[in-house]
């Protein structure tokens, strides 16, 4: 029973981790939280759904949706975010992303109505029997896909010149510029990757939660909890944090009295505890302030 | 033949003007040192060349106008800037710091040159895969200079390399700098408070006071000029 609950939590946790990863990539690029990240993922899910309705196979729809959301996220960075980052307007920036969240949600509701839509599972139905526990094919597929994307990004960051430039731009922006790296460009690329990863998260979770305009709001809270837990500037931390939050959420739902009503409270509790005990998260870098 | 022509009416940060009527040249493969007290505007001169301030006027490198370009384009044009405080990428490894310096050049060359630097300075080689923040101040300064030279620049800008270093380490560092300068035809513009060591490796010198150039001439003359020493250099 316990093992089964843990296994069930891992797949949803992987999706929280993917969305948390998107949040972290944006945070690293622009030092801001993108509150519209959930709605961008929602838009990604709707685009995937729309493309399947138009006859594309689901996997092709997913890839196309990731590309579209990458472009959209990059455009958002260039037009709405960059001017504020340049002027160090941290608070207005957060208001802008909150505004984008509300606007995107309204546009989605207007375009696709508020009726729930069914999205086919990417990895089909059925479950695999693993001795004491049974895991659905969809859950295994989700975990493997998120892991593959994470590994791909790991290779990009660690072993390519573009990845090195992106890490340098995060580590010391001015030195990066003085070394000939366009930090504006690395920022845009960070947002683009975040948009694509978000679209992946949205499309993967849609079959489980059913596609409707309110779908991603709770997921965003779990993703924030995951990113806080893992460390806001650590991609690996985001993924691990996501899995941890997914498992805890699932256990709380099963074992606490009225647990399923309190699932989101658990996520918020995680955020509060981490911020009090270890503000930089599990794997985050401590901000050193020199006086 | 001059590599860099600087002729700016003013430069500064937003509403604050730091420099007034600054004009000088750096010869091809030449070495110029800018001396001056704390807050005189030396750092701003370098930051203006690199595009980190707002400037009115003209700065050309080999005839290419730099004023108005973004810092990464100025770097691409051939200016390498070691900023004050060294600008180390602290959470990246020592080797990655070197690779970033050459990030615009063919990767094969860059990998080979990074290895050559680490062979030349074994202290860097031993720590090649450790975070650069673990290096001592002198090692970080050496790394910063190597990083800047990895770009194969026409002009190297150095902002107070002696800052925070012990006298013995400063002497060694300047000896290395002198050596590196002789090996390549990269020109150097060095900003220093430590006049003694800086004048020792420079050809030409100028003194900046309150954002203006007040004295200029061959480094040897400034070194021997008692008035200059007393008035501006405090030695």
Automatic annotation (TrEMBL), chain A:
Q: Which InterPro entries match?
A: ABC_transp_permease (IPR001851), BCAA_transport_permease (IPR052157)
Keyword Transferase in the entry? The reply is no
Answer yes or no on keyword Transmembrane helix: yes
Q: Where in the cell is it found?
A: Cell membrane
Which stretches are transmembrane?
Answer: 7-27, 47-72, 93-112, 140-159, 188-205, 211-229, 262-277
Q: In what way does this protein cross or attach to the membrane?
A: Multi-pass membrane protein
CDD domains associated with the record: TM_PBP1_LivH_like (cd06582)
Extract the Pfam families matched here: BPD_transp_2 (PF02653)
Going by the UniProt record, its keywords in alphabetical order are:
Amino-acid transport, Cell membrane, Membrane, Transmembrane, Transmembrane helix, Transport
Give the protein family.
Answer: Belongs to the binding-protein-dependent transport system permease family. LivHM subfamily.
Its recorded name reads Branched-chain amino acid ABC transporter permease
Source organism (scientific name)? Demequina zhanjiangensis
UniProtKB/TrEMBL annotation, chain B:
Keyword ATP-binding tagged: yes
InterPro entries per the UniProt record, alphabetical: AAA+_ATPase (IPR003593), ABC_transporter-like_ATP-bd (IPR003439), ABC_transporter-like_CS (IPR017871), BCAA_Transport_ATP-bd_LivF (IPR052156), P-loop_NTPase (IPR027417)
Q: Which residues form the ABC transporter domain?
A: 3-235
Which GO MF terms does the UniProt record name? ATP binding
Q: Say yes or no: keyword ATP-binding present.
A: yes
Top-level taxon of origin:
Bacteria
Q: Which PROSITE patterns match?
A: ABC_TRANSPORTER_1, ABC_TRANSPORTER_2
UniProt keyword list = Amino-acid transport, ATP-binding, Nucleotide-binding, Transport
This protein's name: ABC transporter ATP-binding protein
Identify the species of origin: Demequina zhanjiangensis
């Amino acid at each position: 029973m316990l093992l089964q609950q843990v296994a069930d939590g891992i797949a949803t946790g992987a999706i929280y981790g993917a969305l948390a990863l998107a949040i972290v990539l944006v945070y690293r690029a622009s030092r801001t939280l993108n509150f519209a990240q959930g709605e961008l993922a929602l838009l990604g899910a709707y685009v995937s759904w729309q493309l399947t309705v138009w006859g594309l196979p689901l996997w092709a729809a997913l890839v196309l949706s990731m590309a579209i959301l990458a472009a959209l996220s990059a455009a958002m960075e260039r037009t709405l975010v960059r001017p504020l980052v340049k002027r160090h307007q941290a608070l207005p920036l957060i208001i802008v992303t909150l505004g984008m969240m509300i606007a995107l949600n309204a546009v989605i509701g207007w375009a696709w109505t508020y009726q729930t839509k069914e999205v086919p599972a990417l990895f089909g139905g059925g479950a695999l029997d693993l001795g004491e526990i049974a895991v659905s094919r969809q859950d295994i597929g989700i975990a493997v896909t998120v892991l593959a994307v994470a590994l791909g990004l790991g290779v990009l960051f660690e072993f390519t010149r573009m990845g090195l430039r992106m890490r340098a731009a995060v580590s010391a922006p001015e030195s990066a510029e003085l070394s000939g790296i366009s930090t504006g460009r690395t920022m845009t690329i960070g947002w683009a990757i975040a948009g694509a990863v978000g679209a992946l998260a949205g499309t993967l979770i849609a079959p489980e939660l059913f596609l409707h305009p309110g779908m991603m709001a709770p997921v965003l809270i779990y993703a924030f909890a995951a990113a806080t837990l893992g460390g806001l500037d650590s991609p690996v931390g985001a993924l691990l944090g996501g899995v941890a939050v997914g498992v805890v959420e699932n256990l709380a739902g099963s074992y606490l009295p009225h647990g399923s009503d309190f699932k989101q409270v658990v996520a918020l509790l995680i955020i509060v505890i981490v911020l009090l005990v270890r503000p930089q998260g599990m794997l985050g870098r401590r901000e050193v302030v020199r006086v | 033949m001059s590599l860099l022509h600087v002729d700016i009416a003013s430069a500064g940060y937003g509403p604050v003007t730091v420099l007034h009527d600054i004009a000088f040249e750096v010869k091809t493969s030449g070495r110029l040192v800018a001396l001056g007290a704390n807050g005189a505007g030396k750092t701003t001169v370098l930051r203006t060349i690199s595009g980190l301030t707002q400037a009115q006027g003209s700065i050309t490198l080999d005839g290419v106008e730099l004023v108005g370009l973004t810092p990464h384009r100025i770097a691409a044009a051939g200016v390498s800037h070691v900023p004050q405080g060294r600008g180390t990428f602290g959470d990246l490894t020592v080797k990655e710091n070197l690779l970033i310096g050459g990030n615009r050049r063919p990767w094969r060359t860059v990998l080979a040159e990074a290895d050559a630097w680490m062979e030349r300075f074994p202290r860097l080689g031993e720590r090649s895969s450790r975070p650069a923040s673990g290096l001592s101040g002198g090692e970080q300064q050496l790394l910063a200079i190597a990083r800047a030279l990895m770009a194969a620049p026409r002009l190297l800008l150095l902002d107070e390399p002696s800052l925070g270093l012990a006298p013995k380490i400063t002497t060694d560092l300047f000896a290395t700098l002198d050596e590196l300068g002789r090996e390549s035809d990269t020109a150097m513009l060095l900003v220093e408070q430590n006049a003694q060591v800086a004048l020792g490796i420079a050809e030409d010198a100028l003194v900046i006071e309150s954002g203006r150039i007040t004295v200029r001439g061959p480094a040897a003359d400034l070194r021997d000029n008692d008035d200059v020493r007393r008035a501006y250099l405090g030695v």
